[in-house]
């Protein structure tokens, strides 16, 4: 029974779930400033180093399809602890890699385990809460989660400047071990044995088919994915965007991730404030107006002015604000129809989002990072696709 009906919330649960959700993105953003050094150290081309992102994101997407179903069967806590331990081992291997092919393999092993935190955290929220309280907790998690993409490349940039790229992965190992210890001590089991689901192939096939063939689920997940890609294309292109187009050093990644963090924090705070006061439709309308304004301003600035600070990064604040405002509502719209298999539904949602991200990393980002204008056009295009998907989801209810 959800915590809102019978029990108080576990102490510090929002911070812990935010940390678990942030580990996967943190493993992407922290090493971005090290791309040049990795290429020089391992005798790899820029495209080969870029493919370490794809090597991470594709297994991340594939395995997120299973993390939730396994957590529905075995419990949330056990899956988290095992995944964190395996992630730490894979990350230690990355720090020792001597060839780019070995780094691809170890990044793939990282990706296979990193998604557990994102998937299981979403399922835990729905284990504990319904309705507006669930939206408020999701907003709190998103607000703290916003710190990861801002802090990670800054930390990575300084580690790179001081010690080189291997220090970035050693730092991730230490961070993961600390998170494992905190989870072992504090993470509650929110799925009692009587509510666990089967891992029988026939049951899983029926469940996956039911979720992945639902137009409402697919529309809400597509909206989330396209909204995020409008910003994520900048994350994937960060070394080119900041160091080539804006002529900034490897320690200046905060110029991109700082405004993004600010927008995510403000948008998540607004989502929590609006929960229970404004309808889901009203919240989504406000969010897309903000994202549309950001995309239009971004294109206008690119056409009128040369790439430079602060105008080349200013619209990102407004865009991520709108994106964060929509994120809790769209996440819950996708998961709410599946109260008995929330983990599996969260897996399907994260799988589809991660699949979009993997395609963006391997194909779309290299096509768009040629200029600040093409990146701005990419933001606008993804925002329009997300808006169409959100409109379709509401029409299907």
Characterization of this structure:
82% of the residues lie in helices and 0% in strands. By secondary structure, the chain is mainly alpha-helical. The longest helix is centred in the N-terminal third of the chain and has 29 residues, at 46-74. The radius of gyration is 20 Å and the shape is globular. The chain starts with a helix and ends with a helix. 57% of the residues are buried. Residues 1-7 have low confidence and may be disordered.
Give the end-to-end Cα distance, rounded to a whole number of Å.
26 Å
Rg measurement, Å:
20 Å
Structural class: mainly alpha
Spans with pLDDT under 50 lasting ≥5 residues? 1-7
Q: In which range does the helix fraction lie?
A: over 70%
Biggest sheet, open or closed, and with what strands and sense? none
How many helices? The count is: 17
């Amino acid at each position: 029974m959800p915590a809102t009906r019978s029990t108080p919330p576990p102490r510090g649960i929002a911070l812990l779930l935010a940390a678990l959700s942030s580990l996967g993105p943190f493993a992407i953003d922290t090493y971005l400033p090290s791309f040049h050094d990795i290429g020089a150290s391992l005798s790899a081309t820029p495209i080969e180093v870029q493919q370490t992102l794809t090597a991470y994101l594709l297994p991340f997407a594939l395995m997120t399809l299973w993390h939730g179903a396994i957590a529905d069967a075995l419990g949330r806590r056990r899956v988290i602890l095992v995944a964190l331990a395996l992630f730490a081992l894979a990350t230690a291997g990355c720090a020792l890699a001597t060839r780019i092919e070995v780094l691809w393999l170890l990044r793939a092993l990282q990706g296979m385990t990193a998604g557990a935190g994102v998937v299981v955290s979403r399922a835990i929220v729905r284990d504990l809460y319904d309705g507006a309280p669930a939206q408020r907790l999701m907003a709190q998690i998103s607000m703290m989660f916003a710190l990861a993409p801002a802090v990670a490349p800054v930390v990575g940039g300084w580690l790179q400047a001081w010690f080189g790229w291997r220090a970035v992965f050693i730092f991730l190992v230490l961070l993961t071990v600390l998170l494992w210890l905190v989870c072992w001590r504090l993470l509650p089991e929110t799925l009692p044995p009587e509510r666990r689901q089967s891992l029988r192939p026939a049951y899983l096939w029926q469940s996956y088919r039911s979720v992945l063939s639902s137009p409402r689920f697919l529309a809400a997940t597509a909206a989330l994915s396209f909204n995020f890609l409008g910003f994520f294309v900048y994350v994937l292109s960060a070394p080119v965007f900041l160091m080539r187009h804006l002529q900034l050093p490897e320690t200046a990644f905060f110029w991109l991730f700082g405004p993004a963090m600010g927008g995510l924090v403000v948008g998540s705070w607004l989502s929590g404030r609006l929960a229970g006061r404004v309808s889901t439709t009203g919240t989504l309308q406000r969010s897309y107006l903000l994202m549309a304004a950001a995309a239009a301003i971004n294109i206008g600035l690119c056409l009128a002015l040369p790439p430079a600070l602060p105008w080349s990064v200013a619209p990102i604040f407004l865009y991520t604000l709108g994106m964060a405002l929509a994120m809790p509502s769209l996440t819950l719209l996708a998961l709410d129809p599946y109260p008995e298999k929330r983990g599996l539904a969260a897996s399907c949602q994260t799988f589809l989002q991660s699949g979009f991200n993997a395609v963006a990393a391997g194909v779309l980002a290299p096509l768009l990072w040629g200029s600040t204008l093409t990146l701005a056009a990419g933001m606008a295009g993804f925002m329009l696709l997300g808006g169409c998907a959100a409109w379709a989801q509401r029409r299907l209810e």
